[in-house]
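Continuing the batch. This is chain 6 of the set; chains 1 through 5 are on the previous pages. Same settings as before, nothing changed between runs. Recording input and output for traceability.
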Amino acid sequence: MHNSIPDKYFRIAFDNSLTAHLITRPDGTIACANQAACEMFGRSEEELFQIGRRGLVDINDPRLPRALKERDERGEVSVELNFIRKSGEIFPVHVLSKVFEDENGDRWTIMNINDLTIEKLNRSIIDKLHEDTIYLANHDYLTETLNRRGFMDYLLKELARSEREKNNCGIAILDIDHFKHINDAHGHIVGDNILIHVVKRLKESLRPYDIIGRYGGDEFILCLPHLDQASANIIGERLRKDIEQNPYIYENTSVNLTISIGIKLISSIDIKKIDANGLLSDVDNLLYKAKQHRNTCRISD
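Output for chain 6:
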């Protein structure tokens, strides 16, 4: 049985669809627009007739020429593009555009358009939350350096790269001398600010490609690529002197600081033999020896 539906019902469905619909001619003039299209673009149907299809599409969208070519070749295209509201706002849409002929052989294009603004915004929020989660999982909230987990992940990758490129590498652990006494004398808030101060000073003295992490408490761990004995001495002394020469100052109170440092050098040949836990233990031992004297840097032979 053939069901014949009066044309007026198609118009009712067209007008009341929640999807924006446009019917256009080959020259881009708009012959018909539903209410959803008017609301999407912030224009009346008469205004849409006046500006035509070209006034709605962002002609600077690099995807547009390819979409038009595909529609001409295949008779239809399904693509994401940027369109423009009356306010001038450029916004993302998904458009399904299909060419058809009427009973007289005249060509028309029907465009079904869905606004992706909310979807893109939600995706952006989700992506940002994902980035923030990864950042928080790998960084120390106070000093904004890598935490122990994040640093170890980085260190393993750096050691593999150093072995591959046949470069030496250095690992350092340092801590603030008499930090417990400083905390007791000035309070934990000042203690936290001193940790932030020390990290800032370390970053000023380190090379651009050196990486710093918070090892725990007032201890920090450094990955120092391309390090030999001479550069280890230079970097170690530069770090030590910078902290010594830049006390933390608050409320007209100056807190003198010093650090003790242990640095272990690893040749590219020995990297494959290195166990991460054993490596950190070796550096810890060097730090322990440095702390016997305070304000000292001990470097492995």
